[in-house]
Structure prediction request, 111 residues.
Amino acid sequence: MQNLNATFSALSDPTRRAILSRLATGEATVMELAQPFSMSQPAISRHLRVLEEAGLITRRVEGAKHPCKLAPRGIAEIDQWLELVRKALETNYARLDEVLESQTVERKEKP
Prediction:
């Protein structure tokens, strides 16, 4: 989880999130990824470079094509961080439930 700042910075852009959503359905070339956007192929390549540097995608060279796919390790690191946050929230909510329950019991006991 060393790369979280770069990861969340990469995820802050809606175009990059859309690219990741597309790659969730399977590998795609740069040209396939560029199709739904009204921007140049070099602009898409810059977005892909940010995603690659953040560890969210991998690219390989097949002649003139550069297929991209999700990087499982990068996605797993996000999931690990979210799990830590989820557990902290669950702990806080459990403590809040206990406090609220004790206040409810105290109110019922008072005449």
The chain has a mean pLDDT of 91.
